[in-house]
Structure formats: C-alpha cells, structure tokens
Amino acid sequence: MDPDLSDLDAFLDEQDLDGYLVDADSTDSNQYYLSGFDAPDPFVTLYDGEVRLLFHRSLEYGRARREARAATVERSIDYGYGEYSEEYDPHEASYRVLADFLDAYDVDSVAVPPRFPVHTADGLRDLGVSVTADRDETVSAIRAVKTDEEIDHVREAQKANEAAMHAAEDLIANADVRDGTLYHEGEPLTSEAVKTEIEVTLLRHGCALDETIVACGADAADPHERGSGPLAADEPVIVDIFPQNKATKYHADMTRTFCKGEPTETVREWYDLTEEAYRAALDAVEPGATGADVHDAACDVYEEAGEPTLRSDEAAETGFIHSTGHGVGLDVHEGPSLAPSGGELEPGHVITIEPGLYDPAVGGVRIEDLVVVTEGGYENLTDYPVELTL
Amino acid sequence: MDPDLSDLDAFLDEQDLDGYLVDADSTDSNQYYLSGFDAPDPFVTLYDGEVRLLFHRSLEYGRARREARAATVERSIDYGYGEYSEEYDPHEASYRVLADFLDAYDVDSVAVPPRFPVHTADGLRDLGVSVTADRDETVSAIRAVKTDEEIDHVREAQKANEAAMHAAEDLIANADVRDGTLYHEGEPLTSEAVKTEIEVTLLRHGCALDETIVACGADAADPHERGSGPLAADEPVIVDIFPQNKATKYHADMTRTFCKGEPTETVREWYDLTEEAYRAALDAVEPGATGADVHDAACDVYEEAGEPTLRSDEAAETGFIHSTGHGVGLDVHEGPSLAPSGGELEPGHVITIEPGLYDPAVGGVRIEDLVVVTEGGYENLTDYPVELTL
Fold it and tell me: Which family would the database say this protein is a member of (chains A, B) (predicted)?
C-alpha cells in the first residue's frame, strides 16, 4: 500500500521543516506505515518528500533493499560509522552518522513523533539539527483514515475474531454446571482454557494477539483485567478479543459478555442498558460528528438511568469508567478517540463502539463492535449476535 | 520479584540526580521491571529510592493499587489534570501534572532511558525540570543480570521452546518427498504450516510469540527473513523460535537447522563449521571474558576456514554477518552483547550463542543455544540435539 502523505507534506511546509524523522523498530506503527518495512530492531526513516531508510545493522540491509517502499536504503557504514566509532562511543558515533545522513539530503530541521527517543533528539540537537516533537501526531492522524485496502485488512482480522468468539462462546455454552462452576470434559472450565482456545483459533486464521480478556465475576469489574481461574455459572463473563493479522499487521477488536445460566436482575438490567448505550452511540456515528458526541450519546443513556460515568464524576471507579471507543488499525488503540477530547469523525475512520458497566460487587458487562465511518454514516464490520445468556 | 536497584541508587548518587523516570507502557521492559505492573497504555514510573506510579487513566488505577510493586500509586486528576486541561492542551496539561508530581517528591532532576519520549522530556524541561538521557542504560544493565527466579522463568520458556522445536522437527522429518518438495498429509508442507504448529504448541505451553522463523533455501540466507511457501528436500531449513512466557514475560531463544534428505557438500561443511564455531564460542563463556572475546572465538573458526565475517569485512553481505549472541530476558534482544562492543560477562547473564553462515546461492545455517553465565563458566539451558539431517 502506498500511503497518501500529502497531509505530511502540508504539515512540513506549514511548519517550514525539512523532514519528518522516525527512529524505531517496526512495532512502532508510524515507522511501519512510513517505511513499509518490518524489522525487529530500530532503524531510521526520513521523509523529505521521499522515504529514505538508514540501517545501523547490515543484517537488515539486503532485505530492506528488496522489500521496503523507499527511494533510498543505506547503512551506517556508508556514512563512516566505522571511523566515528574509533573516535566516539557507539551512541555519539550513531548521532554523527545520522547528522551526516540528514545533511546528505539537505535536511537541517525535522519534526519527530512525540515518543521519538530523547537521546537521538538530544544527540542531533548537539550537532546543530533542529528537532521538534510533533505534538499533533501528524502521521498518526494520517493513519487514522484508512484506505479501502486497509479496511479490507481490518475486515479480514475481524472475521478471524468472529471465529475465535464463536469458539469461546461454544465452550461456555456447552459447559456443564456443578456447584456453580462451569466444567468442560470433567475439568473446571477456566479463563485460561478459553483464552487458549481463542488464541489457537486466531493462529489458525493467520492472526497473532497481544492478550485476550476472558474475565468473570470480580475480575470482569476491571476493564483491563485479563481474568484467571474457573468460570462461574450465573455470572457475566466478558470476552474481549483484539487480534492482529500477522501478514497485514492490521487489528480487529470485539467484545461480548456471556452468562451461562441465570444472570441476576442487576446484570440483566446492566446488559440491556449497555445494549441501549451501544445502539445510541452507533446511531451517533457519522462524518462531522465528533468523538465527543458519540461518547456523550453513551453517557446520556447511562446517566439517565442513574449510573455513574467519568463524565459525571472524573474520579468514578464504578459505572462507565472508560471512553466509548478508539481507532483500530496497525495499533489496536489509535486515533480517533471517542472521548471528551475526541475530534471530528471522517469517512475511513475505523473505530470501536464499546460501552460497559463495572462494579466489583456485581462484575462487568461490555458490548463492543468495530465499525468504519462512511460518507452516509457507518458500516458495521462486526457480524456477531448481541446476546447475554447461553 | 523485588529487583536489586542498588546500582540505580549508586548511579543517581554519582550523577547527583534526584530520580529515574520512565514514561511507557509495560511492553517497555524497563517500565515492567521497575514498576512490576502490566498495562497496555503508557504510564509514569518514578524511582527516587521508592517506586512511585502515576496513571493518566483512572482505568488502571484500581488494579495498580492492588498489583503494582510500588510505594505510591496516584492519578493525573490527583494533581489537577482537570483544571490544567481547561487552560492548556492535553499534552501541556499532562506535562504540568508530571512536573507537580515530581515536585511533590522534591525531584528537580531526572535521568531517563535513552528511548524516553522526547515530547515528555521537552515538556518537563520547559517547566524547569532537568532531564538527562541515561546513555549507559543503567536499568537495562541491571536487568541483564538475572536472579535465580528470573533464570527459572527463562528455563520454563525454553522448555516450551523445546516442545515447539520437536513439533517442527517431527513435521519436517515425517514429511513425504515428491519432486524435491516436502509434503504433509498430501499437501505441500509450507513454512507457514510449520510456524502454525510451532505457535500452537507454544500457546499450549503458556507462551506467546512475536514471530517465528522457518526459512528454507534463499529465504534462509537472510538471518531475519521469516520464510514462506513450500519447504524443499535436500536444503537446509532454519527454525528459530523465541517465545515469551505469558505469565512471567520472560523469553527463550533457540535455533536449529534441519535438512530432510541429502544436504549438498557445501551445506554439510557449513554445518560442521558452524557447530565448531558454536562450541568454540561456548568454550569462551565465563565470568570476566568479554562479549567481544566470545564473538572472536566464533569469528576465528570461520575466518580460519576462509569464510567472510563482519569482523574481517564490515560490509560483508555473505558469511557470518551478525553477532554471536545477545542477552535474553524480558526482551528477546537485550544486554549483554556478544559482539565487538560486548563488555565483561557476569554470573547471571543469560545469553544466546548463535553463529551461522549465509549466502543466497547456498541458503543459511545457524545453531543457537541459550546459556546462563555461572561462577564456574556457564550452564546450558538448552536440551536439544545438534543434528542437521533428518
């Protein structure tokens, strides 16, 4: 995929800067997006109207020349790293190489992503290069608007996600119940066992994963708790799966909450309310609406029902205690944000809609779909029923 | 595990700095090591003799109070984030919160890891905090020396690695050969299929993985090429597995090279030479020897046999074109380095020994074990035969 970097050109022009510089391995999505190259060790990408790569290690050089979407691919040794390292420590030698590399392309001033390494920035500054942190995250903002090809990558990852969710749901639905605990083939059915089933299913669909959440009872009351131990009957189990396709590197994201047996009245009410908040948030998604508008739609539902939210109390620890959603792409959490600070939605934004309620005394409930903003509103990339009880 | 941070105390003392500051999510191993807390979004850890955490999002706050190994756990809103964000943009508001947090502990000057985010460093500097990049990577150096508990974590990950390697070897050994291609159950046996088998085995042993290398023929000539497509008979297949235990977060690392059928004479010679280099490097491992010494031992073997190395030619693209090894722990690549710049080995260093030869005209051969430096030399944490042909 050739990204459209015209917004980056405009930014550099406007700021009167010569280039945009990234120093990171390709798990940094700005690096992977700009360079089109996948490497486990940090390398440098300069954008000065062309994409130019600089490798410290010869190891990646040959593959980069074959694979990377770049006008030039060079090595530290091409800029005298060997000589510099006789005179200076390895860090200082690499700053000097980098300054010479920039100089070769007449680049005296660069913007860098906010999380660019401070030692490289300081090293370059000491050598007279102007380095400015791009607090507006121009490349991240470009990444947030997906091309049709990128949307297809997300769609493919979400298909794998649906297969994994079905595998998890089947395990829970078909579990035996003894003394309030779920059993599978005579053994207690644990969070860990369901996660393994999910992850094996994802692998067989070409996806890897950072983590998976299968959280029951008090575990589920903490939105980022991964969950552990035997699953209980009659309690909500939050299953949140966010795989990454290994070939394309694009993510998907989906959550369902299941209950094997009879949920308490409170859990049933929470589920229905969360489904209502989820539908209200979905209804608010359209180009021109802001992330804050969508978040407000979910908060309105909860607050009208008397549930606490972070909007009504910034220190709330129970209730709706996270944002309504986030962008999904090369990163599982990226722009835009569906939160009080969330800006205008644009066609091509791929976002989650994921309201939920949490309280250690009750457990947790969350429903999450993945949608893409379109000219006319949104397309839901998720094809999975919204049902609590199994 | 309570890390021994006395070297960090000494460093801060020597540099006359008030604290050490990390701003990262827990995939940053310095962050995980210092904070003892696992979170997917960036948070701040200050070490000023005590470990102190600051969370931007309330979301992680409750869990951090329960789980983190920290003297204090606080939130941005405790330092007036709400008020600041009415006056300033979200970035500036968070710098002001962070400066107030440091001030609350009388911290005016901090060292930060070299890859600390430049925007945070600049934001703090503008508010009068002194921020110095710690080019010596003090925390990484502390992490490089493992406790017995950490070594056990690596050992456990290596057991999973051995199980996965056996699964891969079995697939290749039991493959049928037709027209020079390996077949499994009537289908061509691909690199991808072997990787899936490896990764499913790892998952079932509690490990995750970033990537796996199963590279045959010309693919194998590039040490970082992951490999793809049908595997060939009579050619070397490099299998390099580097899992991470999901519970402990510690890695293992191992490589074997297999050949189903009859290797060419060159491949057989390369294999024997690489086994010789591997044994020479292992023999050189002991406390007081340097990483450079170990690397030299491997280079000597190759160069005496007339093979090019990066030591003899820094621009070499065939031959022995990487270092002899690296540390393994929370990161799969960490200190110490077994390369020309590699410093003194100490008991507790966990390192790979992994010489190899590469040439697109021949393919690649690599043998890699994982060992821990001990008072008396080293203990090999790898229990897997060294054999080329299957």
Answer: Belongs to the peptidase M24B family.
